[in-house]
Amino acid sequence: MSAIISVQHLSKVYDSGFQALRDVSLDIRRGEIFALLGPNGAGKTTMISIICGIVNPSSGHITADGHDIIKDFRAARSKIGLVPQELCTDGFESVLSTVNFSRGLFGRPPNKAYIEQILRQLSLWDKRDSRIMELSGGMKRRVMIAKALSHEPEILFLDEPTAGVDVELRRDMWEMVRGLRERGVTIILTTHYIEEAEEMADRIGVISRGELILVEEKSALMDKLGQKQLRLQLQKPLLELPTELQDYPLSLTDDGLELIYHFDTQSEQTGIADLFRRLDEHGIDYKDLRSKQRSLEEIFVSLVSERATADTEAAE
């Protein structure tokens, strides 16, 4: 699949000397949903802002649908819709005027039917004549999304789009994202709600301290790093693990009523059969068992922690 956005050796150093991005290279495929994850200050918003032409890069080369974002700014920017973290729009304008104005900024001719469709999808049609200042925070967020979609972009950036919004908007938002992807729009999102990335994204990128530390298909990432837990609910509580079982990747809950066994789904031998045999030898009976996949959030925290530890050791 061809790349609709190509980022090559991108770096950004601010006047203060702070390096926000370090030699980032990334291709985003046409029509995919790409989730960019990272802790606060990792460089997510800086990278999005550079691609969208809001912040100048210190070095590197970026194209959007084949257009250089600096040399051919207008053509590149016309391909992109951006929903920023901050709510920034004229509070005295009506919803309809604001969205129509955004469309006009990109030189697009009026299209009443398309604008109505967007506003209805975002439950804004009944508010079309309301001034922005009269809307709730959630409604203002909907207006930002409508503005970003007003010029029919092929690429949509969503920078923390559901942070601090109600559950209804979050549900509507993801339904709309799925619909956009079906129409061929490429979606790039950053989010603190990692379960949303786990549900929605085709690929995951993890950025930490300005460096892109991983880009992976979501399914492959979950298979590769998503270790499983087998939780055994015991018939009788244990005070401690028998000495003979302490070499196993086992832990005992504080109440002594559950054994938790960690295993790698990629290994040829999970060791579960041997574990059951050893438990039987020691007379440890269980009444229930269940398995649990390691979540994307746990994988993300582990990756960022490992990188932070490696950076600290390198500095020493």
From TrEMBL:
CDD domains (UniProt xref): ABC_DR_subfamily_A (cd03230)
MF terms in GO: ATP binding
Record-linked InterPro entries: AAA+_ATPase, ABC_transporter-like_ATP-bd, ABC_transporter-like_CS, ABC_transporter_ATP-binding, P-loop_NTPase
Keywords: ATP-binding, Nucleotide-binding, Transport
Residue span(s) of domain ABC transporter: 5-234
The organism's place on the tree of life at top rank: Bacteria
Residues annotated as signal peptide: none
PROSITE patterns with a match to the protein in the record: ABC_TRANSPORTER_1, ABC_TRANSPORTER_2
Protein known as: ABC transporter ATP-binding protein
Organism of derivation: Zhongshania marina
